[in-house]
Give the backbone structure.
Amino acid sequence: DTEVTQTPKHLVMGMTNKKSLKCEQHMGHRAMYWYKQKAKKPPELMFVYSYEKLSINESVPSRFSPECPNSSLLNLHLHALQPEDSALYLCASSQDLPGRTGAYEQYFGPGTRLTVT
Amino acid sequence: QKEVEQNSGPLSVPEGAIASLNCTYSDRGSQSFFWYRQYSGKSPELIMFIYSNGDKEDGRFTAQLNKASQYVSLLIRDSQPSDSATYLCAVVSYSSASKIIFGSGTRLSIRP
């Protein structure tokens, strides 16, 4: 089973709203990721968690705040977003972090389509 | 030079033919290579991964890796209209361990 679930599927929010995206996996994976994807572009890495600790922050604006409450869950808290933040937000997980002598395959969830008005 | 390069396409292939998708990468120390398929409006789906030089086959898909020439390719045999999608090449770069670097994707269209 390689399932990663994400909720909600769609989200419309105003620039003053606070909302959260949720991601869950039950594969025992210890690395989890948030990506942002704009139309006709590849996924763009935002955050990486390894063993529930933030490992990589790709200089993401503070209006995006990640949280990893436990090894199966990953949240992305959103506040004061801009219209240009509208995109598909993807969660992914892998058994562990990709390493220099090998890598662990990343499996993506279905994504949350976010529209900021 | 981009770290991972793909021809954006569209690549048009007749149904039943072999579709050949190519990807080059700049970091000679890269170890791990992935192919994802992405339908419009959907998330990427992992279809192949390859870590060693040579060919790796899975059903109609074959991934080929040539580390000396720094390219990785994906062959799709007996192409079907359902194979029409964007194919993303992804590489774990030696200099960017812990991150997968994606190419910009090749749009494949299978014509009936």
In short: The first strand of chain B starts at residue 4 and ends at 6. The radius of gyration of chain B is 13 Å.
